[in-house]
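Pilot study result, target chain (205 residues):
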Amino acid sequence: MQAIRRIYSPIVNIALVANTIGTVVIFILVAIMNVDVIARGIFNAPLRGVFEVVIFSLALIVFLQLPDVVHSNRLTRSDGFLTLAQNRMPIFGHFLGRAIDLLAGIFMACIAYSYWPEVVDSFGSCRFIAGPEFGGPVEGGLMAQLQAGWNRCEYYGTPGIFTAPWFPVKFVIAFSVSLCSIIFFFKVLMGNRNPVTNDDVESPV
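Predicted structure:
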């Protein structure tokens, strides 16, 4: 069990780092929205693309913070029956808890497996490595080629206002559900609804 805890601790660290990044994105989003409110109310000049930035950021925030939510048992769920079973029939209750975690881990793994091809296709649309399908090669150095590839990416937003490639968000989604699946499986192995608390893990920063 100690060996499993040592293996699990770095995974918790990764979840904590992802959660921290998600928190930073929240602060940035709040700052952008405050600037937009001030610019709109005082100068009658709202920032362009705030609506698109909010939607783009929310996807990042939710999935960056999801693994730590799963680890710390803050995921929204109805566990009244499970709590009652664990109090009155501990053996059955803990078995039921493991079964729920196992099903959740399998579900997350299925999402990651089915979603990964979309990540690959979205990144492939940029054609960073290969040249464009039509037209001549991009003139200039590496930065010019990267910029051209960035412009070719599958994007979200409104052209001329705000656009951003989708592949970073899709990668975060695939990474998040994969990490959640691993965390759920560790919960099954350790037989505890919270096998390693944040206090048990050394801070990664």
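One observation from the pilot: Confidence is low (pLDDT under 50) at residues 194-205. A full batch analysis is planned for the follow-on phase.
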